[in-house]
Design a protein that fits this description.
Number of strands: 6
Radius of gyration: 35 Å
Strand content: 15-25%
Order of helices and strands: HHHHHHEEEEEE
Largest sheet: 6 strands, antiparallel
Length: about 230
């Protein structure tokens, strides 16, 4: 009996001691946490939190000061001669040239990926500007896609087009909603089409007669010589 009572007393004393320590430690921790909290308002923003300037659109050169060609160097490695030609006059003064180069490389990747699946789709995307900056990117960064660029430079997007060259053109679409008409200077219709509603997947062509003052199309995406 004596041994049990002594053991119980020892356990009770230890429990009380632990409770007291835990209570005291909690207060100390609370005080430390309170001191560690930042003030409600900061004296000045951290420059590291400021967003970096955005790269200009691939098809637009900056209007402000640009880096001179002699300073077109990456933080690591080197640029190729063709990359430097692409970057010339295109990098804003306070921007990393690598960021601008990346936008051109992405344009190349989009052209290459699209052309691998559908060359007409890639040509149309260059004509319409759906892939911004594709012309300069292809010229300097991915010359293997120059056939796509050459085809695009002979075409034009849907919509009104004044004084088009006479000839036969093919619409770069498989939609059945493509329509077109050619008008003379006095507004009279010289030709229009398609003569019969196309089925989805059919090729749509337009014959633009000489003397056409305006060629208008809708739902055709873009046109190239047939």
């Amino acid at each position: 009996m004596y041994r049990r009572s002594a053991a119980a007393a020892v356990l009770l004393t230890a429990a009380l001691t632990l409770t007291a320590c835990s209570s005291g430690g909690g207060k100390a921790d609370s005080g430390a946490e309170a001191k560690a909290k930042p003030p409600a308002s900061s004296a000045a923003p951290d420059p590291a939190d400021s967003p970096a300037p955005a790269a200009p659109a691939p098809d637009a050169k900056p209007t402000g000061p640009v880096l001179p060609d002699a300073k077109l160097t990456p933080k690591t490695g080197t640029f190729t001669a063709q990359e430097k030609k692409y970057l010339s006059g295109r990098v804003p003064e306070k921007m990393d040239p690598a960021a601008v180069l990346q936008s051109g490389q992405e344009a190349c990747q989009r052209v290459q990926y699209t052309a691998k699946r559908d060359k007409d789709a890639a040509t149309g995307a260059v004509i319409t500007g759906e892939i911004p900056g594709a012309k300069d990117a292809i010229t300097h960064l991915c010359p293997d896609q120059k056939p796509i660029l050459a085809a695009a430079e002979k075409g034009f997007p849907e919509g009104p087009r004044t004084s088009p060259a006479a000839g036969t053109y093919r619409a770069l679409t498989q939609a059945s909603t493509c329509t077109w008409e050619a008008k003379s200077k006095d507004g009279s219709i010289l030709a229009s089409g398609p003569e019969t509603p196309p089925n989805a997947g059919d090729k749509v062509t337009a014959s633009i007669p000489s003397g056409t003052a305006e060629f208008t199309s809708s739902g055709c995406y873009a046109w190239i010589p047939a």
